[in-house]
Design goal:
The structure is a homodimer. By secondary structure, the first copy, chain A, is of the alpha+beta class. Chain A has two domains: 14-334, BirA Bifunctional Protein, domain 2, CATH 3.30.930.10; 342-429, Anticodon-binding domain (Rossmann fold), CATH 3.40.50.800. Chain A has helices at residues 14-33, 48-53, 56-60, 80-90, 133-149, 164-174, 181-188, 196-206, 210-220, 225-232, 236-254, 300-303, 318-327, 331-334, 352-364, 378-387, 398-403, 421-429, and strands at residues 37-38, 44-46, 63-66, 72-75, 98-102, 105-107, 119-128, 157-163, 261-263, 277-283, 292-296, 311-317, 342-346, 369-371, 392-396, 405-410, 416-420. In chain A, helix 6 packs antiparallel against helix 11 and helix 7 (181-188) packs antiparallel against helix 8. The two termini of chain A are 52 Å apart. Chains A and B meet through helix 1, strand 1, strand 2, helix 2 and strand 3 of A and helix 1, strand 1, strand 2, helix 2 and helix 4 of B.
């Protein structure tokens, strides 16, 4: 009986696993150096949790299941609802701001295509308990700190930054009624994904007034926050949102990632829960989906039954990132593949038990060691060592019988040295 | 709207995450030093994959789901079927023996109780392509190498080792027909979990002949492989299995973990697919479920549509292990919680942007740094540094304005030093 893997999932053989480990290790390293602490939640939650605020697209893509008691569960499609639940449960004992990161495995029942799988890993960072632009800038900086570390330059990628607060102020100023904003966001988010004519057609459905629609399009075409300042006139709500965005840009400039960042009001984000800054990082060639995205979500904790605590964060999936790193020749550099340090062999039949003893002693000192299970001749064992890519080969032979000397062969250079077994082991320990 | 977590799952707040990371890191470290390479598969597979060979208990505990095409899937309750599928897919290009490990997240829809949750992590190691006892011993050694590394002694834990091959030979010798063996294994596996009388009652259902049942009980009460040798007489099938077990014990002795190991024919294992060596590690006090278990499964790859390739392996869950480590006072030692190295503050209002610059520079050199988002006075910032447990505090103050000198304060000792900012950064880089 031969059963295939499920479409849209990945098998991580050691070579793929080394790349996945490299990416996740990088995410963890950058999170920690930016002062974030790691958390995680369960792989499934109650289905209703995702129906509150996740946005229609995500709800349609849920993998739902039942437990034996008939309760409706779902595999997590994102971790933010879990984060909100966990923070709400312990809000009074947590210091603020809460700076947390996670690298959850997520599942979405979507049609597998380039850059989209049904199962993937997503780096999440969130700052909770702080409504200042500094926290927003910190989120964007941390994402860029990682992307810069792996070798992506401002010629490869760009952070497109906008603000839902600014967008709301502008749309209100244009005359869009407040109750239409949420559905309009979902439409505006499609701008980059649709041809211009198609986008204008769906926009016309939401904003039938041609003059208003033109103003929306004009705003979305701006490419510097200063231009908004010019058109805002005396509208203080808009100006307030403009100053917030400017603060974020100033801090990103100070922190040395200004060259990666651009104001782009066409970035809206699909999720329903954003309330302030929103951003996406894209490849400059524009060939891929967003590499990461996020923003401020000041109402989510309250919507999940907690107190009204501001929050901001972002998520970066591994699928698009891996494609981009591969295209730029940066993926293999990330791979973490620990080498096999020693291969223990014996030249004299009676010394088999010493081989086991020595291999165990090397391992217990924290170094990797293998040996041949089949006790063939020395040349067969050395062949196994080569096949397994061992760095060094240890030969237990005549010298060992006579005076406890091991022969250590460097497999790259072929150079051999003799060393007393105790001396060798104490060298490993130090 | 307040939604609780699903019962039997865990929230990993940073303190719990540090412990989980510590345990998983230890597993990975020991796997690598024993020459294993990491792999992983998807969190869900086709439901049918688990119905082939996983044993009735596991099949009853599956979390099943459907994809949008109506295909029946299940969250993985174990990773061995995935391993068999992955190896079979690429068997011709893989070097042998295959020594692989994984640390999958697994889910089982069981009633949560002490040592059993509905979601857990399980360390798996497997050696595929080798039918020698050396591979079996290597699996047991690797499990013990980890348990010994974290501080568990032979006074805390014991590896109970037996053999399905031996058991089959003995049961056949007693007169049990071959077609009854599989269902009898499931009963014998209950011996340690039931009171003696209850066990004898269920045994009597499977083996109505009192004389035969007594022989089964007598065999299961043996506690040294030498005793089997005595009772085996001239039965060569039994003697062959005895010699296999003896080889495993000899190798474990040579590798320095002999004191942890004991022959125990009452260890049978619940899973249907074992064919040779079986083992479990238990706490000596006998208060907990098995810490780990495994064995040889020479037919599984063939049952999954592949060639007949021998294999042996084991799994160790994190739930029982964590309870044991906690009881022995060894859990907190495992926790990996990277400290916050630097907290950057500024004493002069105009220097806020330098604070961001410096924090970014420290981070990009691979060190962790935080700062206060709210630009309060220095004493408020130092309070934040203490609250976040920073090791060192950097003060950007008057000395910095005058001659680019930073003040670095050791938060544990209170000792302060002044250093030129460039010198400080170049010290970080080296």
């Amino acid at each position: 009986m031969k059963i295939p893997p499920v479409k849209g999932t990945r098998d991580f053989y050691p070579a793929q696993m080394a790349r996945r480990n490299g990416i996740i290790d990088g995410w963890k390293k950058v999170s920690i150096r930016n002062g974030f602490e790691e958390y995680d939640g369960p792989i499934f939650e109650y289905l209703t949790m995702y129906q509150i605020k996740s946005g229609q697209e995500i709800v349609e893509q849920l993998f739902s299941l039942q437990d034996r008691g008939g309760r409706e569960l779902a595999i997590r499609p994102e971790i933010t609802p879990t984060l909100a639940r966990m923070v709400n449960q312990t809000i009074n004992s947590l210091p603020r701001p809460i700076k947390w990161f996670a690298v959850p495995r997520l599942c979405r029942a979507e049609r597998p295509q380039k850059g989209r799988l049904r199962e993937f890993f997503q780096w999440n960072i969130d700052i909770i308990g702080e409504n200042l632009g500094q926290a927003d800038a910190e989120v964007i900086f941390t994402a860029l700190d990682y992307l810069r570390m792996v070798g992506l330059t401002s010629k490869d990628i760009q952070a497109k930054i906008s603000s839902r607060k600014l967008l709301a102020a502008v749309l209100t100023d244009i005359g869009i009624p407040p109750e239409k904003l949420d559905s309009l966001y979902a439409v505006l988010d499609k701008k980059a994904k649709l041809p211009a004519e198609a986008f204008e057609a769906v926009l016309a459905e939401q904003v039938p007034d041609r003059n208003q629609a033109k103003k929306v399009l004009d705003f979305m075409a701006l490419d510097a926050i200063g231009q908004v300042r010019e058109v805002a006139g005396t509208n203080e709500t808009i100006m307030d949102a403009v100053r917030d965005v400017e603060k974020i840009f100033a801090m990103l400039e100070w922190m040395g990632v200004g060259e990666y960042c651009r104001f782009d009001p066409s970035v809206v984000r699909g999720l329903a829960y954003y309330t302030g800054m929103v951003f996406e990082v894209h490849d400059i060639a524009g060939e891929l989906r967003a590499i990461c995205g996020g923003g401020r979500y000041d109402n989510l904790l309250r919507d999940f039954g907690g107190p009204p605590i501001p929050a901001t964060g972002m998520g970066m999936g591994d699928v698009v990132l891996e494609i981009l790193l591969q295209e730029r020749g940066l993926l293999e550099k990330q791979a973490i593949k620990p080498p096999l340090e020693y291969f223990v062999t014996f030249a004299e039949q009676l010394l088999g038990s010493d081989m086991y003893r020595l291999a165990a002693a090397i391992r217990s000192r924290g170094h990797s060691a293998n040996f041949s299970y089949r006790q063939g001749g020395l040349s067969k064992q050395l062949k196994d060592a080569t096949a397994q890519g061992a760095r060094k080969c240890i030969i237990i032979g005549q010298e060992y019988v006579e005076r406890r000397q091991l022969v250590i062969k460097d497999m790259a250079t072929g150079v051999q040295e003799s060393i007393d077994v105790e001396q060798f082991l104490s060298r490993l320990s130090s």
